[in-house]
Amino acid sequence: MQLVAASKMRRAQEATKxxxxxxxxxxxxxxxxxxHTSVAHHPFFVKRTVxxxxxIVIASDKGLAGAYNSNVVKTYIExxxxxxxxxxxxxxxxxxxxxxxxxxxxxxxxxxxxYEDLPDRPDGRELNAILDSARLKFTSGEVDAVDIIYxxxxxxxxxxxxxxxxxxxxxxxxxxPGVASDAIYEPSTEEVxxxxxxxxxxxxxxxxxxxxxxxxxxxxxxxxxxxxxNASDLADDLTLEMNKARQGAITxxxxxxxxxxxxxxx
Amino acid sequence: xxxxxxxxLGVKIDQTVYELIIPTAAGEIAIFPGHEPLVTLAVPGAIAxxxxxxxxxxxxxxxxxxxxxxxxxxxxxxVLVDRSIYGADIIEAESTAALERAIVLRDNAENQLDxxxxxxxxxxxxVRLKVAELHRRRRHL
Lengths: 266, 141
Fold this sequence. Notes:
The complex is a heterodimer of chains A (266) and B (141). A 5-stranded mixed sheet of chain A has the order 3-2-1-4-5, with helices on both faces. In chain A, α2 (20-33) runs antiparallel to α6 and α5 (127-139) crosses α6. By secondary structure, chain A is α/β, with parallel strands linked by helices. Helices cover 56% and strands 17% of the residues of chain A. Chain B folds into 2 domains: 2-87, Sandwich (ATP Synthase, domain 1); 90-139, Single alpha-helices involved in coiled-coils or other helix-helix interfaces, CATH 1.20.5. Chain B is built from 2 helices and 10 strands, in the order ββββββββββαα. Chain B has a 5-stranded mixed sheet with strand order 2-1-9-8-5, with no helix packed on it. In chain B, a hairpin with a 2-residue loop joins β1 (2-7) and β2. The two termini of chain B are 26 Å apart. Chains A and B meet through α1, α2, β6 and α6 of A and β1, β5 and β8 of B.
């Protein structure tokens, strides 16, 4: 299991870097577009007082991944307490069977959707339903913010559960606008902005899915390594015990034989 | 001109090309070096790439793309789409079976959401089959 987890971890780690050029390109396009139209007025960027929020919780389908799922659940509970104290209502989308099982037991939140058995190598199709739900709820005003709780992947040995706000979207200018200032926007700047904003938010959710996958496989690999090491230590200890017991039995048998021979000689 | 095709799974193409034919919201457009700067919406469909001016149609390379954004400047074209697949990588038998399943889903959809999802699936697999056919036909030109 350790070897399987290690192989999946390598693939998942490589995938976490894959969506970076996509996000950068979308940001560059948005920077250029901000010179032609007001980005802040797009429904994705409008900030409202948060009275209801949507939490997207990403955990795993399987266990045996160390503290992976419990860390996510802990962060989720913290957020529910914060909402409770601030009298903010919330709804939840659970991604992964472990998240779904936990969310089903919580009475304070409404479950908007459950997504299980996502592929090991996400290709973007799986996020469409989540993105569309988030978009509809946010633009219709049913929720005032959309947050993702997932495990941020830093390295094979360093990952931590965290919360990331995806809607209202934050606009961070790119260094280079990347688009000629006299460019024509077709069919209109608003429609192009709509397309870019949708993709930028989608890329953030997709990145969270990739990070969560890489973290899950890393933590499972470490958990399996510890289990293998513990089993190996236990096997060594038991082998030592067995050898001691066998040696003791041989010594005792030899002592009895020598004792018998000496008794016969006398 | 430089063509960059970027998807959620990374950069698929980053090289010099002579011509790019791409489906947009306003119809299919052919882009050559020196094109007017333009930013437009790409729609799901097939893109065709001619790498050199001297290449004939049998050398065109086809990709199936999902919707996205196309940014054209005089010296470069940047295509930002969620997904793309190279014509040679499409397995026609799988796409045909997937299209048949999607048609069944569309015909049996019980609500608007299911119907929209089924339509998307039908479109995606139809585009893939079209690209696979274009790729196959190209080899016989």
